[in-house]
Amino acid sequence: MKKDKYLKELTINETQKRHGDNTKKDVMKIQSWLSLYAIQNPESGTVTGIDGDFGPATEKAVKNFQKATNSSQTGIVTPQLFEKLCEGMKDAFERPLLSNTLRNAMVEAAENHLRNAPFELEIKGQSNSGPWVRAYMDGHDGSPWYWCMGFAQTILDQAASALGKDFRSLMPLTYSCDTVGTTGLSKGLLTRYQTVRNNPSVMKPGDFFLLQKSRYDWTHTGIIISVGNDVIETIEGNTNQAGSRNGIAVLKRTRNFRKTKLDVFSIEPLV
User: Fold this and answer.
1) Last residue in a domain, options 85, 107, 134
2) Where is the Peptidoglycan binding-like domain positioned along the sequence (predicted)?
3) Cβ neighbours around 229 below 10 Å, total
4) Which long-range contacts (CB under 8 A, 24 or more apart) does 58-67 make?
5) 225 and 200 in one domain?
6) How far apart are CA 193 and CA 199, in angstroms?
7) Are 76 and 159 in contact (CB under 8 A)?
8) Which of 135, 151, 216, 221 has its CA 20 to 30 A from that of 236?
9) Tens digits of per-residue pLDDT, 107-124?
């Protein structure tokens, strides 16, 4: 994969513990993953502040995680325990894809990520933060870093790389929907929503949808995973139940393409 910054989210330099010789950055990683664990396991008691201070609250959260995962309740985070904390990201990025076509691999990769519940955190007052955002955004996070395109390109990169292809032959590495939209126009790969509504067959699983604000301004994107008569199913990053372009998670959504301005970027040349 070309987008490989996720690897930094899967390790800590050394064991971290209360009253230990700790590294603030590693402690913040631990606190982030503890909080992310609680999103899927709200009864676990692992939510804690993300401030880089391995104090009594973090120690207790670690013990609660250890209890929940049938580990010895030491309150100490070894590199091995940290691997268990972030095993969902490792699975999402490194589970071998079984599909032998790009479109199927796109859907498979997106579903693998969805299964592992990518979610953003708020850290030091900044939304769009945390391990998952940094993984999709090549190390960047914080409120300005809308991550829907980072997620979509990660899926494209992962699927293409599994088949020995380079996604950058289709589009540049970017976090901008506008860049992908204008690239699609210049290459003849972007189908406008009016045509999409009249001829839904132009959309195929693995293609990107681009939510159009105006003719040359797009605000949100995601991966199309299935196409019906009136709706598409998608997997999108940085969204929520309302379909926001600045939401909090990777979600599977159903969108009515006949009532929204959804342009479509085709990945066909890479297929």
Assistant:
1) 85
2) 25-85
3) 7
4) 58/18, 58/27, 58/30, 58/31, 58/34, 59/17, 59/18, 61/31, 61/34, 62/30, 62/34, 65/34, 65/37
5) yes
6) 10
7) no
8) 216
9) 999 999 999 999 999 999
